[in-house]
Amino acid sequence: MTSTTVRAPAKINLGLSVGPLRDDGFHELATVYMALDLHDTVRVSLRDDDQVTVAVHADADGRAESTAVPLDADNLAVRAVEMLRSAAGVTTGVDLMIRKVIPVAGGMAGGSSDAAAALVGANAELGLGWSREALAELAADLGSDVPFLLHGGVGIGTGRGEQISPVLSRGRYAFLVVVASEGLSTPEVYAEFDRLEPDPAPPHVAPELMSALRGHDAERLGEHLTNDLEAAALSLRPELDRVLQIGVDAGALAGIVSGSGPTCVFLLEDDADAQQLTAELWSAPGCADVIHTHGPASGARIIA
Questions:
Q1: pTM higher than 0.90 for the full model?
Q2: Are 176 and 268 in contact (CB under 8 A)?
Q3: Residues facing residue 6 across a β-bridge
């Protein structure tokens, strides 16, 4: 039996502006995504029956706890394959083996990354020949982050985040990712946002952030990192405020809660700062790991 292995990146939101609740139950968003060189891998192989199965393994360093990932139809990668098979009118069975590195329930879209990888891998293994654009249309029904993770790089997300426009960005940036020992529920964070901000303004992307990306100005980029969900995440996990303070005091250009949290991401001036900052951040409350990574990175792509 042949197989296809696909690598897909984590994401962070350099800017996340959250607007009013929509009729479909989602919030209107305007966000600037960046894909990071921190990847899950998904191996896709065909079966002799019509079943879709999934197995999950944590990475060798135990960065992502595999036991927190569903192993049934609730797994987003399984849903991705089921949707692709239905749309293509095929019933061939598929085995998925996911190796987790991206933090689970950490606000870095690990489940969406796996779904993007599963779409690319199943498309190849089933011999469908769908374009990346056709896969992205299907991805929008899976989750707000999935279309971006198919493309990677830097992009603006609007609607509920699924409408992607590529962004011109120069150079690469260094980050430290602080993984929390316990995850946060995205619905709970949004519910807390609704409590704290019952009448939010329409979402927008800050022009200063876009200018910093075009000019590869890390210091200016750090000044304009924003996340409207950060206050809600800090309300639910007050210790995250201490994590952010430790990183900035230790020399990071800026620190921000990633998406709905609880992962915190720190922008560095360059890689030379990483070792000392890593040592300082290990003392942060609830820290389970500190990962040195870079962005932007490419989207889901076949590696074997």
A1: yes
A2: yes
A3: 42, 302
Looking at 11, 40, 114, 273, which residue is catalytic? 11
Tell me the one-letter amino acid at 85.
Answer: R
- Let me know if 100 is a catalytic residue: no
Which pairs from 275-278 meet CB under 8 Å and 24+ separation? 276/250, 276/251, 277/176, 277/247, 277/250, 277/251, 277/252, 278/176
194 is catalytic: no
> For the chain (length 304 residues), average pLDDT per consecutive 10?
94 97 95 97 97 85 65 95 98 97 87 97 98 94 94 96 93 95 92 97 96 96 97 97 97 95 95 93 94 97 97
| DSSP assigned state of 198 | S
Alpha-carbon distance of 143 to 79, in angstroms, equals 11
Catalytic residue among 40, 95, 114, 145: 145
